[in-house]
């Protein structure tokens, strides 16, 4: 059987049927591109207002802190986007991050001279192993992703606490070159942020340019139709969960490099921030549309909100209120766009008929 996956341009990441004229499809993709543009404008506006209130907000150190604050969230958001596009979710990323971060500390305690590349590969491998567990239960055993990853969130965190047994790894226990990676810059850009940029570009290129990436959108749009077209739905979903786990493992290593002090509680609760960043970034929670670039913008926006509100002298509890309002607005906008897309496609079919 020949598999054909017809999708629109990846700017908005929305699948679209083939069309001769292409006008409705281009219009649909413009809608999603505008959504991401709106996120970028909101980010610029927030930075501008905060800078007017306090010009030091964009000082060299402040810019570095903002980029470092968003780095781990961006890496996790990229993996989460790949999963959510398939109409699934991975709530275990925070626990995987914590497990990989503590494993990194233990690795350097056991082998003080271990190369940084070994630590990175070990963290990615550990995360991928956790992703394999999630993927097997979701794609093979057909258990809902929400149930599986909620369970593994606690399982992986429990393993972390059992392994740590109350132990805390301090920055003084880690190699100097590894700790320097958490503070080093290249042309004023933190090295850790370059990892996030590399992950973002690779994931974006794959989703846009490779058949497997486009099939993920087709699965999220309609899993049953994707199966009828010969798309290996189970294998693609399994792969998405493994990638999400691997990126969470990478984020754990970056977390260890940035903070140095590690215990079993590392990354607790960050999974909710990740899902929030992805949804705010324009990725449809029901799957089938969105892009890793929008998710990265969402992560940057949430991180900037966290840094800007104290400068604007806004009470800390309002941060959660603002994030919650952004999530509701993003979901509402997504449903409105979906309805408009449906109307456009119905109009096209009526004209063709």
TrEMBL record:
<keyword id="KW-0997">Cell inner membrane</keyword>
<comment type="subunit">
    <text>The complex is composed of two ATP-binding proteins (LsrA), two transmembrane proteins (LsrC and LsrD) and a solute-binding protein (LsrB).</text>
</comment>
<keyword id="KW-0813">Transport</keyword>
<feature type="transmembrane region" description="Helical">
    <location>
        <begin position="37"/>
        <end position="54"/>
    </location>
</feature>
<feature type="transmembrane region" description="Helical">
    <location>
        <begin position="292"/>
        <end position="311"/>
    </location>
</feature>
<feature type="transmembrane region" description="Helical">
    <location>
        <begin position="116"/>
        <end position="141"/>
    </location>
</feature>
<keyword id="KW-0812">Transmembrane</keyword>
<dbReference type="GO" id="GO:0022857">
    <property type="term" value="F:transmembrane transporter activity"/>
</dbReference>
<feature type="transmembrane region" description="Helical">
    <location>
        <begin position="237"/>
        <end position="258"/>
    </location>
</feature>
<feature type="transmembrane region" description="Helical">
    <location>
        <begin position="91"/>
        <end position="109"/>
    </location>
</feature>
<keyword id="KW-0472">Membrane</keyword>
<feature type="transmembrane region" description="Helical">
    <location>
        <begin position="317"/>
        <end position="338"/>
    </location>
</feature>
<protein>
    <recommendedName>
        <fullName>Autoinducer 2 import system permease protein LsrC</fullName>
    </recommendedName>
</protein>
<keyword id="KW-1003">Cell membrane</keyword>
<comment type="function">
    <text>Part of the ABC transporter complex LsrABCD involved in autoinducer 2 (AI-2) import. Probably responsible for the translocation of the substrate across the membrane.</text>
</comment>
<feature type="region of interest" description="Disordered">
    <location>
        <begin position="1"/>
        <end position="22"/>
    </location>
</feature>
<feature type="transmembrane region" description="Helical">
    <location>
        <begin position="184"/>
        <end position="207"/>
    </location>
</feature>
<dbReference type="InterPro" id="IPR001851">
    <property type="entry name" value="ABC_transp_permease"/>
</dbReference>
<feature type="transmembrane region" description="Helical">
    <location>
        <begin position="264"/>
        <end position="285"/>
    </location>
</feature>
<dbReference type="Pfam" id="PF02653">
    <property type="entry name" value="BPD_transp_2"/>
</dbReference>
<keyword id="KW-1133">Transmembrane helix</keyword>
<feature type="transmembrane region" description="Helical">
    <location>
        <begin position="66"/>
        <end position="85"/>
    </location>
</feature>
<dbReference type="GO" id="GO:0005886">
    <property type="term" value="C:plasma membrane"/>
</dbReference>
């Amino acid at each position: 059987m020949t598999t054909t996956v017809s999708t629109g341009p990846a700017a908005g990441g929305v699948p679209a049927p083939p069309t001769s004229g292409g006008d409705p499809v281009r219009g649909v993709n413009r809608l999603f591109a505008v959504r991401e543009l709106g996120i970028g404008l909101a980010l610029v506006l927030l930075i501008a207002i905060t800078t007017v209130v306090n010009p030091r907000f964009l000082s060299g150190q402040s810019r570095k802190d903002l980029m470092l604050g968003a780095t781990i969230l961006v890496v996790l958001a990229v993996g989460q986007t790949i999963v959510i596009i398939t109409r699934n979710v991975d709530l275990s990323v925070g626990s995987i991050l914590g497990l990989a971060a503590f494993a990194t500390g233990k690795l350097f305690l056991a082998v003080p001279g271990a190369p940084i590349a070994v630590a990175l590969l070990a963290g990615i491998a550990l995360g991928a192993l956790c992703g394999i567990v999630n993927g097997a239960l979701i794609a093979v055993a057909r258990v809902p992703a929400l149930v599986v990853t909620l369970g593994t969130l606690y399982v992986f965190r429990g393993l972390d606490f059992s392994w740590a047994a109350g132990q805390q790894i301090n920055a003084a226990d880690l190699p100097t070159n590894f700790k320097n990676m958490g503070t080093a810059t290249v042309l004023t850009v933190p090295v850790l942020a370059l990892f996030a940029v590399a992950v973002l570009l690779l994931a974006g290129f794959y989703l846009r340019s490779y058949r497997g990436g486009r099939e993920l959108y087709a699965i999220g749009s309609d899993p049953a139709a994707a199966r009828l077209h010969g798309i290996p739905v189970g294998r693609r979903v399994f792969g998405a969960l493994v990638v999400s786990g691997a990126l969470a493992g990478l984020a754990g290593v970056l977390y260890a490099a940035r903070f140095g002090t590690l215990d079993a509680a590392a990354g607790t609760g960050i999974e909710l921030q990740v899902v929030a960043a992805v949804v705010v970034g324009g990725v449809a929670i029901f799957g089938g549309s969105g892009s890793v670039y929008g998710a990265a913008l969402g992560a940057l926006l949430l991180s900037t909100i966290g840094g800007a509100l104290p400068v604007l002298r806004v009470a800390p509890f309002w941060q959660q209120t603002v994030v919650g309002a952004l999530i509701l607005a993003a979901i509402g906008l997504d449903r409105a766009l979906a309805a408009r897309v449906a109307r456009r496609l119905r109009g096209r079919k009526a004209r063709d008929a």
